Amino acid sequence: MSYQSSASSASVSISPIQQMVASCSGAIITSIFVTPLDVVKIRLQAQKTPFPKGKCFVYCNGLMDHICVCVNGNSRAWYKASNHFNGTVDAFIKIIRQEGIKSLWSGLPPTLVMAVPATVIYFTCYDQLCTALKARMTDHTQEAPLLAGGIARVGSATVISPLELIRTKLQSQKQSYRELTDCIRSAVEAEGWLSLWRGLGPTLLRDVPFSAMYWYNYERAKSFLCQHYNTSEPTIRISFLSGALSGSIAAIVTLPFDVVKTRRQVELGELQAKNLSCQGSTFKCMSRIVAEQGFSGLFVGFLPRLIKVAPACAIMISTYEFGKAFFQDNAPCHKA
């Protein structure tokens, strides 16, 4: 299937509900393909350094990062290193043979409750904003994806941040919803409503620049490849390559912010799990990393991040564009 040369052109013909369905489908497909890579990575980490009770680690389903709290050490957890793995391929084989293929998607359902709505909000808002901005920025339409991407990410992150905080508390403390409500109410009374968005700063520090660069480069790369292949309607292959390229560029540029965000999120997660007050700031976290490891510490994990981000971006954007094209091709006006 082929589709129109601009994501926003499809958004003129389809409704926001159809955009939501397309982004939801893309989110689920992306998580199905990417999650096994992160599950294997976490199992290898647990083999090298077992997770003690109360320890936090980052779990990525290809859509967003989640802080998971180790609640029972290595006794019955899915991230237990039950066997010795000799590398990534060996881990895949042993997990499938001994635990079943479903184990490669361990921990996925609870995170999708947050990740899918966040992705739907993000992609739908981007398309709507990009269309509106292009209509107003007649002389600077190429910059519209830059602004739309950044604004859409701020919106989705702001909505999801309190829910992610609640999910972390539920997981770590196994509270009832009534107990959780009392806990949140007491936190708001003591520290104000902004306490529900603690941790949002590091997230925005990485995700807003990433999103702005990603969408700007994606639209430019897609246009370039259309000209290169002499086609006015980009194929899934063109969208896939554009997504992988733009995702790689954004991932490399924002790597220092990713390192800081991950460290800060883990610290906040462990403190919140113990109901302790969260002190410090993102800037202090960055200064501490530089003091301990030098400036090179801000670029740790370059290859793993690239391997994770590039395919996730490529799969998500190509399936999303495919879904929008499907609705556009089957619209009554299009058939007429």
UniProtKB/TrEMBL annotation:
The keyword Transport applies. It holds the Pfam family Mito_carr. GO terms for cellular component: mitochondrial inner membrane. It is found in: Mitochondrion inner membrane. Solcar repeats lie at residues 14-132, 140-224, 234-326. It catalyses: glutathione(in) = glutathione(out). Its main location: mitochondrion. It comes from the Eukaryota. Keywords: Membrane, Mitochondrion, Mitochondrion inner membrane, Repeat, Transmembrane, Transmembrane helix, Transport. One of its GO terms (biological process) is mitochondrial transmembrane transport. The keyword Cell membrane does not apply. It is a multi-pass membrane protein. Belongs to the mitochondrial carrier (TC 2.A.29) family. PANTHER family: FI19922P1-RELATED, MITOCHONDRIAL GLUTATHIONE TRANSPORTER SLC25A40-RELATED. This is Mitochondrial glutathione transporter SLC25A40.
